[in-house]
Amino acid sequence: MDELLKELRAKGYKMTPQRRAVITALLECGKFPTAQQLLAKVKQAAPDVSLDTIYRNLSLLIDLGLVNEIHLPGRGNVFELTTNQHHHHLVCVRCGKAECLDYCPVSAQDLEKAAEQGFEIISHSLEFYGYCRSCRLAG
Amino acid sequence: MDELLKELRAKGYKMTPQRRAVITALLECGKFPTAQQLLAKVKQAAPDVSLDTIYRNLSLLIDLGLVNEIHLPGRGNVFELTTNQHHHHLVCVRCGKAECLDYCPVSAQDLEKAAEQGFEIISHSLEFYGYCRSCRLAG
DNA sequence: ATCCTAAATAGTAATACTACTATTTACAAT
DNA sequence: ATTGTAAATAGTAGTATTACTATTTAGGAT
Asked: For the residues B76-82, what does the mean pLDDT come to?
């Protein structure tokens, strides 16, 4: 938490109660909250907060690499704080559940390939889609 | 085109004029149309088509692996027909343009790693985000 | 050609997400 | 402590996407 605040401070961003509440909500919700769930949580601390504020702050945190956005096809997006361990996600297309995959197949060589096309890569997003254990067993 | 129709036929899906128009629109729009652009194109052939139909058919084609959905953060999604060559995309976070990257870093070993967690993987989505050549030159 | 049934559709409603504007506020400089 | 300024916010509006329902239709069986 303190690390996040320090990082924002260092980049010249202001620390408002709403922003603090969004970060707190991310910490407390833990596993993959939706924007609506975050809004509900934040409202406990700041009842007048607008949904716009949730998305604006999420967007900022994503741009800074402090939050990951995970796309659940047909179910919207969910979020998580970036841990020190860069990783990706397995998403079940049947029940919509997400699991972490502590692994990243993207190498420095891959980024060079992209650079050959003139791109300067700053991040990437990778999700695997399939059927989770329980959905496979359930048929 | 004929290949697409054959594949749909084989899986028991019906071939309606609207569905045909959606596929035609995907072929004609070529490079990364949005859902709205596809709707406009399809309306030329079928004026009463609903947006729902566009999304429903895109969704089906995506599930069958015949269409890719590319997420442009803060700009919605765009689509493309899957070519015979599996690939991913570079997306410029400044101007929103997408380019193909004829390359995929995901190997069979990576999929095995996922399987260890009980998942049966059927697809994956990978996008690289950064700055394209012209945006880098423009500062 | 007619009938049957599940798939597909149009139209509408609901939800998710983004954009805009006037006002407020953090925080740095005085 | 006061002031100035750009960032951030609430509230609202607009766009994107998904869900629901009654009706229509493609395509196989008769």
From this structure: 94
CATH architecture of B84-139: 2-Layer Sandwich (3.30)
- Is residue B62's pLDDT more than 80? yes
Verify whether the Cβ–Cβ distance B119 to A103 is below 8 Å. no
The arithmetic mean of pLDDT across residues B76-93, rounded, is 92
Residues of B whose CB is below 8 A from A96: none
Q: Which two tokens stand for residue B104?
A: 């995929």
Say if the Cβ atoms of A101 and B117 lie within 8 Å: yes
Full-model pTM:
0.91
A127 touches B: beta carbon within 8 Å: yes
pLDDT at residue B2, rounded to an integer: 72
pLDDT value for A4: 83
Domain residue extents for chain B: 1-82, 84-139
Strand partners, B80: B68
Across chain B, mean pLDDT equals 91
Percent above pLDDT 90 for chain A: 68
| Strand C nucleotides where any atom sits below 7 Å of a protein CB | 7-13, 16-20, 25-27
DSSP string for B57-90: HHHHHHHTTSEEEEEETTTEEEEEE--SS--EEE
Instruction: Please indicate whether, in this complex, the C-beta atoms of B125 and A126 are within 8 angstroms of each other.
Output: yes
* Residue A17 vs residue A30, higher pLDDT: A17
Q: Please state, in angstroms and rounded to a whole number, the distance separating the CA atoms of residues A39 and A49.
A: 8
- Considering the segment(s) B1-82 as one domain, its CATH architecture is Orthogonal Bundle (1.10)
8 Å CB contact of B71 and A71: yes
A118: nearest CA in chain B?
Answer: B133
Other beta carbons within 10 angstroms of residue A118's beta carbon come to: 16
Q: Which of A96, A108, A106 is nearest to A126 (CA)?
A: A106
Per-residue confidence (pLDDT) for residue A110, from 0 to 100: 87
Give the nucleotide at minimum CA-to-C1' distance from A76: C16
